[in-house]
Amino acid sequence: MELLTILLQATAALGWAGVGAGIAAVGAGIGIGRIGGSALESIARQPEASGDIRANMILAAALIEGVALFAVIVCLLVVLG
Amino acid sequence: MKKLLFLALVLAGASFNAFADDPESEAHGEEHATEAHAEGHAEESTFNAGEMIMHHIADAHEIHFLTTGSGKDVAISLPIILLGDNGLEVFSSSHFYHGEEIHLEKGHGFAYDDKYVMVDEVIYNYAADGHHGIKTDESGAIINSKPMDFSITKTVVGLLLTTIILLWIMISVGRAYKRKGHKEAPSGLQSLIEPLIVFVEDQVIIPSIGSREKAAKFTPFLLTVFFFIWIANLLGLMSFLGGYNVMGSMGVTLVLAFFVLIITNINGNKHYWKHIFWPDGVPLPIKFILVPIEAVQILLKPTVLMIRLTANITAGHIIILAFTALIFIFGQSGVGAGIGVGIGSTIFMVFMFFIELLVAFLQAYVFTLLSSLYFGSAVEDAHH
Questions:
Q1: Cβ partners under 8 Å of residue B175, min gap 6
Q2: Which B-chain residues 301-320 have CB contacts (< 8 A) with chain A?
Q3: Distance between alpha carbon B125 and the CA centroid of its chain, in Å?
Q4: Rounded CA gap, A33 and B334, in Å?
Q5: In degrees to the nearest 10, what's the CA dihedral of B207, B208, B209, B212?
């Protein structure tokens, strides 16, 4: 509990940027995890389509990662600005 | 046996990268009490990981390779080109880096005689009524006037290198095709580039735009963007060349996204604009919500392209630098801790380098794919 308090105090000093970046990472993880999961299921159902599915999976993952990294940039600007 | 040798070489190469980011190389003359010399704790300048990381991903006016053990810097000082009250001035940045050093509360600067000061790589006019030539307001922000800075910085050198590599590869491949035509099989560099170009054209550009005829207008731009981003990313991964973060600079990606914006909207046909401002088959109340969103999207899509590229590349560099910094953070507690953490950290760093290789290609692919999709929607026919 003590450790948590100290960590939160250290983060609050910099405007909660660390927490923001962490939450962005969680969002990215959930989103890309879901994409990966459904892609794997689809490949299991129809192995012939794995090339198409892989390409679409990568595209969707890159788009979601873009949004998450957008949040990371904002947190970085909070720390630096 | 061969696999062991390969693994040893890879790890040796990776730790060479760690040397390139040695914190001793940080600060040109900053007092660095090395761990070996200091009496243990309470050193004047502990290793500041955040500062080291920011220094390596940000632009600089010199290409800094390393600092030798005796404190000598091995660096290439780049020309500084300023347009200010004194007209056009061109001089080497060594005037700054070997000039008077200024330590501020927030930031680190150099002064060039009484003409200019450079704080955190930004050049200001020397203010005679300031402290060391720097005037700050209450919050510590610098309020000196600035000359217009057209310097050749590290990112500009990275851009030029990328352009040279790209031109060299593509011109030689083009000449080989002109010489051989369809008579001989491709060889050498052609065999490397042709599958890549065919992949991008047949799998990315033409499916997104629709047909080969419609895509012919856009293919040169899209292929150039693809290879430019890929080569620039790969160049940034080779930190021993000087550590270029070309795509990490929003200026570069802004220009690429701006081109995409211009090309999309100039080539937009009637259906494209109708789709944005008066979509078919949508009830009127929903039109009021949809049309503003679509209108904002015109500007927003290229903006997101820009941020996605910059953020991905910068984030990758930060991760690799953070693993490297970890070694030095633990090294401050003792050499043994540094070595112990170093082994694990280097392995993770090598792993991250492989991921960054993938990201280098992937970001180029995604940028090209999305640009093709935007171009495709601009020239789309009525039936969709």
A1: none
A2: 304, 307-308, 310-312, 314-315
A3: 28
A4: 40
A5: -20
Which residues have C-beta within 8 Å of that of residue B25, sequence separation ≥ 6? B64, B66, B67, B73
Nearest chain A alpha carbon to B306 = A66
B93 plus B205 within the same structural domain: no
B358 Cβ under 8 Å from any chain A Cβ:
no
Domain contains A4: no
- A59 with B312: Cβ contact below 8 A: no
Query: Per-residue pLDDT tens for B126-147?
Result: 888 777 777 787 777 788 888 8
How far is residue B274's CA from residue B17's CA, in Å, rounded to a whole number? Answer: 53
As a dihedral over the C-alpha atoms of residue B130, residue B136, residue B138, residue B141, rounded to 10 degrees, the angle is -170
Non-local CB neighbours of B270 within 8 Å, separated by 6+ positions: none
Task: Indicate whether B23 belongs to any domain.
Answer: no
* Residue A38 domain boundaries: 27-76
**DSSP reduced 3-state for B66:** strand
ipTM exceeding 0.90, yes/no: no
Give CA–CA dist B261/B378, Å, rounded. 11
Interface of B with A in 54-83 (CB under 8 A): 54
The DSSP secondary-structure symbol of B136 reads B
Question: B76: how many CB neighbours lie within 10 A of its CB?
Answer: 14
SS3 content of chain B, % helix, strand, coil (to 5): 60, 10, 30
Residue A6 in domain: no
Are B267 and B238 in the same domain? yes
Range(s) of the domain holding residue B128: 79-151
Alpha-carbon gap, residue B248 to A41, rounded angstroms: 36
pLDDT in tens, B323-355: 888 888 888 888 888 888 889 889 988 988 998
